[in-house]
Write a structure and sequence with these properties.
Elements: E1 2-4, E2 11-12, E3 17-18, E4 23-30, E5 35-36, E6 41-51, E7 56-57, E8 62-65, E9 71-73, E10 78-79, E11 84-86, E12 89-90, E13 95-96, E14 101-102, E15 107-108, E16 113-114, E17 119-120, E18 125-126, E19 131-132, E20 137-139, E21 144-146, H1 151-158, H2 163-168, H3 181-192, E22 199-201
Parallel strand pairs: 1-4, 2-4, 3-5, 4-6, 5-7, 6-8, 6-9, 7-10, 8-11, 9-12, 10-13, 11-14, 12-15, 13-16, 14-17, 15-18, 16-19, 17-20
Antiparallel strand pairs: 1-22, 20-21
Length: 204
């Protein structure tokens, strides 16, 4: 399904294949010979998404351009099934495996790879030809690549980046205060209501 969002309509090269139940929404540009497979969702919500030539977006992958964080994907990249990308930059020849997550402001340099269920966290820069192993987490700039049991080390880098403030515009609560989910859900509800006016359009 191709959707017009906030008066922005996807631009899809005529050589691309978009599966019938894939979703392309808003200010999305898709290059030559791209394949967007079944169930994949590419949603330019408040920022544009650009996908270069010869990219493969496999089943049920989600790519989102979010508030202040566009998505740029270079040429010859493969995004695996159930992968999740939000507001990030992916340079050429990058492999992102099944279930991997790439967060806001992250950059994956040319030839890098993220293995199954790997994570590249907020504002992290993954250097050229670097690999994140299965289930490991890349965090920071300069990057640290750590196994999931190294929570304290991961948190030491991640905490100052203030994920809720960066992504939702809602500051992390101070010690002893209740969590900020009421404010976060309200902010997201206000942001997502822009989809109410979406229109189905034909592929162009």
């Amino acid at each position: 399904m191709i959707l017009k969002h906030l008066d922005q309509k996807p631009s899809i090269d005529t050589t691309a294949f978009i599966a019938p139940n894939a979703l392309i929404c808003g200010d999305v540009k898709i290059g030559k010979n791209v394949r967007v497979m079944y169930g994949a969702q590419i949603i330019a919500e408040n920022s544009p998404i650009t996908i270069g030539d010869n990219c493969i977006i496999l089943e049920n992958a989600v790519i989102r351009g979010t508030d202040k964080f566009p998505v740029s994907i270079g040429n010859n990249c493969l995004i695996g099934p159930n992968a999740h990308l939000a507001g990030c930059t992916v340079e050429d020849n990058v492999f992102i495996a099944t279930g991997a997550s790439i967060f806001h402001g992250a950059t994956l340099k040319t030839g890098s790879e993220v293995c199954i269920n790997g994570v590249v966290h907020l504002k992290t820069v993954l250097p050229q030809d670097t690999s994140v192993p299965i289930n490991w987490i890349a965090v920071g700039n300069p990057v640290k690549i750590l196994p999931p049991d190294k929570h304290d080390e991961i948190w030491a880098v991640q905490k100052p980046l203030n994920f809720p403030l960066t992504v939702y515009g809602i500051d992390r609560p101070k010690s002893g205060e209740p969590n900020n989910m009421i404010a976060i859900c309200k902010a997201m509800s206000d942001r997502l209501k822009s989809h109410i006016g979406n229109e189905i359009v034909d592929k162009e």
